[in-house]
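#data-curation
PF: Archiving a pair of folding outputs for the training set. Convention for this channel: one message per protein, sequence first, structure tokens after, nothing in between. First:
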Amino acid sequence: MKLIVRLFVVALVCLSGTTVDAQNYNSVLKAQKPKTDAKGYYSLLDCPQSLPNVEVITEQNDNGSYAVRVLIKGKQVDTFTCESTSDDVRFVDANFDGYYDIFIGPATTRNYSHLYLWDTKKQWFYHATSPDNLNDHFILNPAKKQWVSAGSSSYCSMYYTIFRWDDDKEVDIESLIDISDPTAHHEYGVKRRYTVIKGGDFENIAPNRKLHTNRKSALPKKWRTILKEFDKYIQ
């Protein structure tokens, strides 16, 4: 009988210890409130590259990818292979759940990046899926729980997309195409400099979804704000 009681006590201690470890991991990754500008935005460039008690070790493989190990309080909690073109690490609360996720970039145009979201229950990071690789500049608006990406597809075009994360998937809300020379892009069906579309389907822009203008001042206020925001980060 005494042996059974002792085994029961040991089991309780072990289970208790596991719970404490899990809670400690979440507490270590608890995100600080980001410092936003007057318009409520901040950039990945403003995100911390290190956290106390968290270590992200990257080693480049022969094929150019990175082997990534994540240690929390000295204990390895995750390992994965990252196809990013650089090993610049940023800690960002990407899905606005209150915990830091890992973005491996950098978030600069034409450099491929990857995002790994923290699962508070399973205690590991998992790869966020996206219709295309994360290879743009990004700003975030935590109040709206939105990201905005900005990238170029040619010397005379920029495209911007407002999106959010639904679990681990990117959901496009609205996009803006900015083409300084519309005649160079007949495939877009764009005849004026600025075109706003729903979602991010640049290939099939339905006529009833178009907002065409040559004047930035004619754009909705949110887009004028976003363009000004990116002026700070894209030179």
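PF: Second:
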Amino acid sequence: MGAGKTTIGRLISQSLGKDFYDLDKVIEDNAGADIPWIFEREGEDGFRKRETQALASIAQSDTGDSVLATGGGIVMREENREILRDNALVVYLYASIAQQLYRTSKSTHRPLLQTGDPKATLKKLFEVRDPLYRDVATLIIETDARHPRSVANKVLDAIKRHLKEETTVS
């Protein structure tokens, strides 16, 4: 949360000339409602079910010609991690808790942070999610104190190196 997935994903898709999907936007479009409303009406479990359905649908129909920005909690379900592992080159945009807090402090569109102590919430989420992201990630890129364009360039360079290594080894 607050790592820059949407902004950086959009920059990467533009650089690669690929379609861009923001999974949260896909979920909102499919539901005809925004994420806070879905959380309020269906709870986190209802949202996670919708998230898995949207991810599976994109994975099924995608031919590798797109960039997908997922929500921060996508890794919470094993089914999602399997879909990501099997169908994508996964880039984990790592952001420290301090950076996440800074980047999300003014947002009212993040239901999980509408608590009395967003920092404690982010810390708890990080402790659970970080190992799951590391498990599924093909590449890990640190985003702290970096401009989105700089991070996008770093991701593009890492992808190129990874693909070059992959074709050299194969």
